[in-house]
Amino acid sequence: MDNDPILMWKKLQEVHVVKQAGALDTFFSIRKQETGSLVSLTARIHGAMQKIQSLRPDNFSLQMLDEKLFCITMIRSLPEEYNTLITSLLLKGSLSKDAIIEAFQAKENQRQHRATLESFISSSTKALATFSSSSSFTQAKECDFCGFSGHLIDSCWRYHQAQREEKKKTVAIKMRRKQAGR
User: Fold this and answer.
1) Domain with 134 in it
2) Which of 18, 37, 69, 171 is most buried per CB count within 10 Å?
């Protein structure tokens, strides 16, 4: 593997892309220092621009520039609470618009799932309080799913938990298949 020129070239490309992303991030982070002059600010911007230009591949195009600007803007738009996502994206090796959009969607799905879970826990707590004061009719029934008496399957937390777990597994399988197809 160490002697495979294709693998070595791909690794060099990955390192180059990460350096280029870091250079762009540095470039867009330049601010005038309190005690600095406008001339020194211009010199710092000029130096950062030269670094970006030196990292640019020979076949660089406006389309590539557009994609890079899109990627950097997406990453820089995130607040501090997304630092782990930002780090994982930058360490990925290749920044592409599609990869970042996919990561954003996955993160949003996680956030929505967490919110749904918190809502479920809240409603389960209310249901449990209602359950403890329910009629003797429900108390006498036995759940078809878990076998415990006192509730029916439509209010069985074990049943609902099993459904959620199966949905998670299905989503994970679909994501793996999608990634394997790329």
Assistant:
1) 96-182
2) 18
